[in-house]
Amino acid sequence: MKTQFLLDPNIIYLNHGSFGACPKPIFDDYQKWQRELEAEPVQFIIYNSPKYLKESKRALANFVNCAPEDFFFTPNPTFAINTIMRSLDLQPGDEILASDNEYGAMDRTWNFFCKKTGAKYVRAEVNLPIVSKKQMIADFWKGYSEKTKVIFLNQISSATALIFPAKEICERAKELGLITIVDGAHVPGHIDLDLQDIKADFYTGTLHKWMLAPKGSSFLYVKKDFQDMLDPLIVSWGYESVAPGESRFLDYQEQQGTRDISAFLTAPACVRFLEEIDWKTRAKEARQLILENYQRFCDLLGTNPICPISEEFLGQMCSIPVNTSKPAELKDMLYGKYRIEIPVMNLNGNIYIRISTHVYVSQADIDALYLALKEVISTTDLIFV
Ligand SMILES: Cc1ncc(COP(=O)(O)O)c(C=O)c1O
């Protein structure tokens, strides 16, 4: 499969999780849109983009099971969360409950917002190693208080690469009358996603990670009850529109000044590609690589898995704890000497090497990492076992 991607063949690419990777047919589709835009900018932007957008949204809506009129494209999840944050009428003392496994950009977004409003961002400690889903849920709710107004949760975490029980947490949150916001950046095209089933009030996901879209393609789903309260992050022609569409919500969110929406238009090409390669079977094989290799890497590094090795907690990524006081040097060595692109991440003072397996990753790639780490252990002081 690797030849279908634009990735440098000289690099062993084990970091799909950070920014994805785009196969040639999808990238060709992206450039086709860009060429059409530059051939006739006025026709494209003013006359054609609404119908192109509609078509693309239909493809994504089918894929994630929601109505096309209930979401809009955003360049990335940070944009989506900033849009929500700006519209929440939180008061001093109100609390946003999250886990302590959230993505750094999101923690920063909430910290910024809380500093401005006097609200409080509460990061509930999720104890590692995870022993059960029940424990994850219980740990999360330890952060709850009568001041909690909103819950925010990543469905698959970044540094720890864990699948969180988003559905169960959203269900409980609804019983408590809370607003639910799920960061599903890693979810679409990775594990099954059914927005009607999760029932979050807000859900953001990317196409440019596991759905293989070019960069800058993400979305924000908003439950109908919240669509009217959502201000645009960028105020433009859609506000007080002279030509209102069917939905004020979409007028506000989809008209954001002159911009290139080509990445948004690749959703049908992404879905087509995923279907053509039988992505559910390929994803299962990629998960299998994770399940078969996680313990082996922990044994090599003298550490322990951070969760039970099962599909309940692991998708196409796993984070191996590593004892190092020089994470940046370790990362640089793996790339510089061994030509392996892999992140070495710090979360709450713990360091992890995170392996991602998409369809282009083979056991041979993972073995190359294994041998590289073995050599690093025996020839340097970067890892202590
Ligand atoms: C949990 C999570 N949220 C969000 C993001 C990405 O956010 P952005 O592209 O807006 O920086 C990532 C990226 O790895 C992530 O892991």
From TrEMBL:
The keyword Ribosomal protein does not apply. Gene3D superfamilies: Aspartate Aminotransferase, domain 1, Type I PLP-dependent aspartate aminotransferase-like (Major domain). GO terms for molecular function: transaminase activity. It comes from the Bacteria. Keywords: Aminotransferase, Pyridoxal phosphate, Transferase. Residues 51-369 form the Aminotransferase class V domain. This is Aminotransferase class V-fold PLP-dependent enzyme. It comes from Flavobacterium agri.
